[in-house]
What we know:
Layout: H1 5-14, E1 71-76, E2 79-85, H2 90-97, H3 102-109, H4 114-135, E3 144-146, E4 152-154, E5 164-170, E6 173-179, E7 184-190, H5 197-204, H6 207-214, H7 218-239, E8 254-259, E9 265-272
Antiparallel strand pairs: 1-2, 2-6, 3-4, 5-6, 7-9, 8-9
Helix pairs in contact: 2-4, 3-4
Amino acid sequence: MALPFVERIALARMSAPIDRNPHMTSGALGASWNFQAVSGPRLIRPVRFGVSQPLAEPAPDKVELRPGTIMPVLENDGLEVLAFMLDAEQNVIREIGVCLNEEERRRAEGMRLERDRRRYVATRGQLRRVLASKLGISPSDVELEYGRLGKPHLSHRMPARDLRFSVSRSGDVAVVALSTRQEVGVDIEAVLPVPEADEIAAHCFSASEYGSYTALGPEDRLEGFLRRWTRLEAISKALGCGLGQPLSWDEKEWAVRRFAPKTGYIGTVVVRN
């Protein structure tokens, strides 16, 4: 189970990056895909990404996800976001996971909780399926390489090496964002109470973001927090930042889209213009 936010923030402030193994893992508010194999938010302080950033709202199409299927939830000018459920019958999980490599299988076997193993296998297997369909190869033949801070990209041996992708998972839902143009980052969160939201916002939001968040009324605070957090996470993934690393960006360089992969979830995807 992921540590509470406040504990993870304290851990990140006291520690150097703990594990650079680039696997899907528990993320900020659930189980989003970060660049470390341990839970923990990345403490980043955006310099220029305030409330003036325009947010293009997609049409509120109702997405009905089914176990074992991959559904499109957003498509726009070279950007695609696909969603799938993680909880399925064991035979479905086995079928999805047959394409995992030896390292991924060891990773899954090392997880203590059966639910975590199942969700990891589903996420990794479906990611391989998505990438394979774009590359025209078998899912088991997909090869990934990782940057200095663990950001994944297709191996130089893969066709269509300019295909960028980002993955996030929370609860029983995962998404894969694909871009044929520029760097992409995605984050989703289940809409659940976050008792430490005010403290997290004070630590992680920019001054303008924090000011706009605290100005919200009580009934809008949770959604307001999650929208800002998913945007922050998506940007940090696109830039490939690590734990405790400060960074800045120019808001004019990024297109931001909100989406809902499933009822009860909030998602944000960003792509460089």
